Structure formats: C-alpha cells, structure tokens
# Entry
Amino acid sequence: MNPRADRWLAYSMILPVVFAVLAFIVGPTYDVFTLSFTRFVMGQELGFGTLVNFRALFSDPLFMQVLVNTAIWILGGTFFCVLLGLAIGAYLAVDSPITTALRALILLPWILPDVVTAMAWKWMLHGQVGILGQSLSQIGLTDRPISFLGDPDLVMWTLVAVVIWRKMPLVALILCAAIRSVPQDQHEAGKIDGANVLQRFRFIVMPHIAFSLTAVTVISMIWITAEFTLPWVMTGGGPANASQIMATYIYQQSFQFFNWGVGAAMSVVNLVMLMAIVGLYLYIMRRSWASGAAP
Amino acid sequence: MKITPSRRRFLAGSAAIAAASAFPMPAVRAASGTVSVWKFGGTPTEVEMWPERNAAFAAGHPDIGLDYSYFYGQIRRQKILAGFQTRRLADVVIAFGQDIPEFAGFGMIQPLDPIAGDRMAGWKERIVPEVLQSGMHQGQLYGLPTYVDMASFLAIDMDALNEAGFDRPPATWSELREYARAMTKPDRPGIAMPATTAPVDINIFEGIAYANGGRVFDEANNTVTLNGPGMVDALQLYADLIADGSTPAGSAMTETNFRDTATLFSQGRVAMWVGLSWLNTPWGTPDDLNWQGTPFPRPDTVTGAFAPVNAIMDPTAILMVSARSENPEAAIEYLDFWSQDEQLALWGGEPEFARVPAGKVAWEQPTLAEKWPGWVEAYQAGTLFKGAEPMPRFIGVSVVETALGNAIQQVVLGQQSPQEALDAATEGAQQQIDILRG
Amino acid sequence: MSQSRPIYWTFMTLIGLLIAAYVLFPIFWLILAGFKPAEELTQLPIAFWPSEPTLAAYRDLFAPQTQAAQLLDWPTLISNSFIVAVSSTVIVVFFGTLAGYAFARLSFPGRDIILGGLLISRMFQGAALLLPTYRLMNAVGLQDSLVGLTLLYSAFGLPFATWIIASGLREIPFELEESAMMDGANRLQSMVIIVLPLATPALITAAMWHFVGAWSEFAFASILIESLDKKTVTIGLASFVDYFTLEFNRVGAAASLVALPILVIFFFGQRYFTRGLLQGAVKG
# Structure
C-alpha cells in the first residue's frame, strides 16, 4: 500500500468531522474566549484586552463555594457513577433471568429527555408533595419529611444521585460487556490457583477492563460536565447557593444578570480546569490508555 | 401567522371567535407588512387564549402578516438577549415590566410616544391609569400592559381561622404572628412562605418589605439598599414566624415554591400562605375549601427609610416594541389591537380571572365581581391601586433580586440572622452591579 | 460463575430488585401519572395506583380545545423531532464512518491527538456555548430551521460516534482487508464490502447513541427554534412544566409517547448496541 496516498485519504476522510467540530464547537468556544477578555458596560462592548472579568470573578465571595460545589458535582458524580456502574455492571455480567431482563431495561433512564427527568425527580423528591417523602415516613424510616432539595447539606448529593441515575446505566452496560469479555480460561485458571471471587475480580477482571474503566471515566466526566438542565431545573442553584455549580452560575451571570463578560471568564476557567483534570487523569492512566490504543 | 390548516379551521369555528366578531373591528389603517411577536409563559388560560385572539387580529388585518411565537417562560431573558444581539429581535416582545429599564438601557426597545401617534389617546381612555403607568420609564411609555400582578397577599383557610377563635383576617404583623401561632396544629403549620430561588417567591417577600418602607436599590445614589431597616425587619418577620414554630421546617420552605405552597394550602396542610394577586388561580383548590384572600398584614410601625407602599405591582405581559423594528406601524397596530375592549375584557373573569386586569372594561365584568369581589370593591372605591408602586426595576435588578433570594434562603434555613444575610447580600450585589453598570 | 445455592440466588434476586427499583421507579411513576386524572395528582395521601385509570391525558394531547394542542401540535412536534434525529443520525453515521475508518485503519501524523481533541471538545458545551452558538447559527442563516438544528446536532454527535466506530473497526482483522486488496479491490471497495459489514454493531451503536441524544436535546432547541411548526418534542414537554402549569398527567402521557419510538428502536437494536459498546470500550 502507498503510505502517502493513505495519508491523504485519511485526512480527507476525517476532514468533515474536523470541520464540523471546528465550526460548531471550537468556533463558539473561541467566541467565549474573546468575550472573557472584553469589558461590557450596560450591554455595550467597551474594548478588548482587559482582565476585569477575571478580577471580578476571583473577588466574588461566591466563587469559592461554586468551585467546591462543582468539584462535588464533577468529581463526586464521576467517581460514584463509575463505582456504581462497576458494581452493577459486575452484577449484570452474571447470567440469570433477572440480569438478562435488567440488561434490557436499565437503559430506560437514558432515553428520557433531561427536562422531564429533572421535573419528575423534583416532583418525587419534594418533601411534602412528593412520593418519596411520603413513602419514607409511611415505612417509618423518618419521622418528618426530608427536604432533599431544600436542605443545603443534602442538595448537592441529591443532584449527584439524580445525575448518576441518568448516566450510570450506560456505564454499567459498557463495564458489564467488558467483564463478560474476560476469557473463561483465565477465570478457570484463577480458580485452580485458589483465588476467591474478590481476588479473581481484582487480579483477573480489573486488569482486563482497565482500559474500559479509563474510557468510561473520561466519558462520564465529559457528560456530567456538559450537564446543565438537571441542576438548573431542579434547584436553580439554591437553597442559599448550596447547589450553585459552574454551569448554573455561568448561566445566571450571562442570562439573568446580563453580565456576559464574567460568564465567559468563568467558562474559560471551567474549561482550563477540566482540561487539567482530564489531562492529569489520562497521564496517570497512560498505561491502560496506551494498551487499548490502536496497533 | 403560522398556524396549521387544521388549527385554523378549529379557530375559525370556535365560539370565542364567533363572540368576538360581534364586536365591530376598529377601523383598519394603512399598516401592512409583517409583524413578529414573542410571548413567554403565562397561566394556562392565557396561553390558550392568546393565539385565539391572534386569529381575530389576522382576520381583521389581512394586510399584516402576523408571525407569533410562544416560548417556554423561563428562557425569556436569554431569548430576548440573543435575539437582540443577532438583530433578530421580534417586532413586539411581550415581557415583564421589571425588564423595561434594562431593555431600554441596552437599546433593545423603543419608547412608544413617538410611534403611537393618536392611538395613545385611546389607550389612556381604555386602560386603568395606574396600570398604564406601569409601562412608563423615564417619562415615556415603553409598553402596553394587559394586566398586572400585585404583591403581597395572604390566603386564609377561614375554617381554621374561626376554629382558632378569630373572626377577621389579621391586619398587622404582630396579629399575623399571633394568628399563625394559634392556627398551628401538629402537621398543619399556621402559615407557609414560598422561599425557593424562583423570582416570584422573591417578589412575594419584596411586597412585604416595601410595605415596611424597604427598597432593594436606590437609583439616585446607585446603591444597593438590601440591608436597610425596612428590608431587615421584614425578613425578621419571616425569621420570627419560623422561630415561633408556625411554619413548615425551613428546609421544606426552600424547596417549596409558590405553586407547591398553594398545593399544600389546597390540601389543608397549611392554614395560610403568602402569594401574589393570583392566589385565586385554580391550583387544584377544592370547591368546598372555605378560604379568603386578603392583602398581606401591615407592619405595626413602619421601620424603613422609604415611603411604605400598599402593594407593589408589575405588568407581566406587557407589549413592547423592538428598537430595531422595521415595521413599527404594524407593531403599533398589534398593540392597539390588544388595547381594545374585547381583548382587555378577557381578563375580567372570563376566561381568565387570575390576573389584575388592565382594562377598565374588565372591571365591569360580572364574572370578575363574582370571582373576586374584594378586588372589584376596592377598584370601584378607588383604593385598589392607591399607594401601589412598581416592582423593583432598574439596570441590574436581577442581580439584586438574586442576592435577596439567597439572603431569604439563608435566614429561612437559620444559617444567618437577617442583618448578617442582608449585609452580605448588599455587598455582593453592589460589586456585581458595579461591573454591570460600569 | 455457577453457584446454585438458594441463598446465593435469593441474594442475587434481591440485588436485582433493588437496582430495578432505583433505575425504573421514576419512569414507572411517570407512566402511572399519565393514567391519573388531574385532581388525583395533588391528592393526599398520594395515591399510588390511579383510582380510576383514564386515557384523558393522552386524549388531551390531541384534542384541539386544550392548551396542549393549542400550542403544541403533537403530530408536528413528533415528526419534526423525527426528521431532525433521523437525518442527523444519517449524517453522523456516514461521516463518522469515514473518519472512524481513517482513525482506526490508516496511519497518519497527529492521529491520536486529533481523536483525543475531538473527544475533549465535547466537554466545553452546555450553558457557556448557548449564546455564541445562537450567534453563529444566525450568522449563517440557520436559526429557526430544522436544517440548522440537524447540522448542530450532527456536529455535537460526530466526535463520540467517530470514536465508537473507530473502536469497532479496530477489532476487524487487517488480513481480511489485505486479502481483498490483493484480489484487486481498492481501499474504498474493501472498506465498503469487507470491513463495514463486520462493523455493523459499532455502526448501530453509534446510530442509536446519536438518535437518542438528538431526540431528547432541549437547551439548544428551545433557544434556536421560534416557529410553531418547527418545534420539537422536548420543547413540547417543557411547556407542561412551566411555573404555572405542572400537569404531570400530561407530562407522563407525552413522555411515554415520546419515548415510544426510542423503545421500539431499542427493542430491535439492543443486541447490537451491547456488542457495539463492548467493542468500543474494551479495546478503544
């Protein structure tokens, strides 16, 4: 085969995708970068090349809290999404009628539109008019209704639980598939060596699915980061900013306050941090990432 | 207007149109071309009747192409902003009175005085002056209101009130505390205040604080005044009601917005709730519930530095004209259509009775008097709008109201005292607003 | 794993039921709401089963006197969403296959970096890009159009679809393709005749993935679409849950209807979907 010709063929084949991403994603992203260095007063542009938006952002007392909440949202969300996905994936990998049925049904949360998911959960979780509150007190687990979305100590983790509900099924299915692809003879060999279930999981399954784990971790993180509708519709950042995260605060600054310079600056900070986290993660996991890469 | 043929058939055949065609149409002037209209949210009845009346407009103005779009209420500001930035703002935007200073200040909308011509005389004639006033900004009219929402009101379960040994609604804050305590039973708090981040929940509090001489912003000095005594003491009332044990738990109220609070009330799970003038919206309130709506009780002594108001109000469906409209004549024609009695009457209890109507004609509808006798009496006595001020409106209003909402939640949750929470809110909001206003 | 002790199976079943409760209850609750009369939704204590199951909410969606049908012509909404989802899926699968093939089976400078960059670009979305995207769509005259929405969704979906397809294609032995080319087929021919049929699970996975995403997108559709006749199902669903109207019976009914096409697709594609995911994530 002719490598030179292949090279040109390859570039022309990826051209449409690269162009689409450049136009629709990188273009607007560039726009946001420009905005973040532009000063706005009363909605009018007052010149490019200023750090006023970034200064405003870092002197905003709320910003620290937003960072902490965002860390819970993204890191906590990703961690538990993958952990639960792994546990459920391992469970689903077992052959039985109930797992077969669950493997088919588990994707249902994923097909429900975001707005509906958010409203339905908000409705169910409401301490006083929701079914969950009522059921919990009927069973006698709680003596008074719990306000999952009104209690500042619970709200962030409640949101995390909902986003996991939405994203975990795919993670579980992917990991289930990965676990099932572990060759049977390796299991047998492990058994012969006297390894128990947990040891076999740790020393045979885990290395085999290491790449899949890395991949779903990165993908979950990307999903949860891009998720905006769920937190916005469910709490709007409340109560008392206890669930204010980057995504909702950017929206609030840009569209409620019309402070879009600050909103853009926050988007930039957000992106830089995320790229750092993902880069770091990929660096740490470089061996498993590389082992899965193409020949 | 873009409507599907089947819808057109339905609309043409609907009783509403038949009734409307009995009214003579106003003389059509030479306006032509197209006019685009954006409407955001609204009560269910309103959302349904708006396109119905649009069909009547289209029928009466064959030369004007009407392009009506309805949007999800909560994207109002982002949609209008996006439209403005891309020079695609609709000719007529139906938004809030609270939006006017920002929209005017950013150059999004234009004053109506220069373009309305002799139409304005008719508007002044048909619209209640106090309501028309709510469309004014810096001495000029920027919008045509169709109704207003007023704050704040109290819904009372009269059976619970009688049971607690009272025979009239509470009139002062201290009475309210006493009533709320007396009306509280296990599992049935005396009063609930909605306290989510929803703007309406914040407006409800503002209505109470403004009646105590509080204000959120001092336009003349460009200062946020959230921590003035009028505001702080009003928030102290919330804190006191909670400390008295007369309310649901704080964390329950921060997740319970005005609609949820109404639901609790209609289920008999709170004896009173605080809301805007649309207390009477059919929130699933059962017919056998013996309840009454009254203005929110007054402070015993006004502690704020500003003039106490009787109520605050905002036209939440006010028609504005884009500054870049290429066809202001057609836009005015559309505004004028909505200023006609047959449209204004729609808020007179038939079909919609949840709004305070703008049209004089609506106040004469027997259906309104039947639904809401208190309003009509006060209107006829000339006291309904007396001492009423607009809801906060200035450039940066959203910044300040958001900070206020946050402070309310902190106090309701017992995290901070009203003074602490409002001091912090003032400082934060001032910083934000200085960036916005330069 | 072949334990057959009864304790083991009881344990397994219990876990299964627990997972099912967490994952399926909210959906079940929403579907139930669709069959309840409106009054029952605010009743106390909350009735679990509809006392008198009714199809009223479903009828309301199509009855012209209701708000539901006044604003939202559900047949139009559904067909619009369908047009957008199907056409962007076709675009995504077509171009994703081209690019995926290049990434998987050809070697060229910058390959891994470009693929990684594509994936990461997906991260910078959501709230921050709403306004710039709106401006871009206006600048190119694609606002308020289903074509614009289709192209936008395609751009959003392409990176991930490319990645899934590339992963699937890597699994196919090079020897098969090489022998075809020995027999005189050129690269494109061998790709279409030999490789793609073997990559069907990956293609189906990418297609289903994208279809669901495009079918349920709300934020961009809600700001880009203005005309009544171009609205999509998610905009329709959202209008039941505005501040003043919270009609969960209609939400339940509409959501069930909206989910139905996807369910049908999944019913047929599920086998491939799982296999495609397997290929994608086991060997990236």
Remarks:
- Confidence is low (pLDDT under 50) at residues 1-28 of chain B.
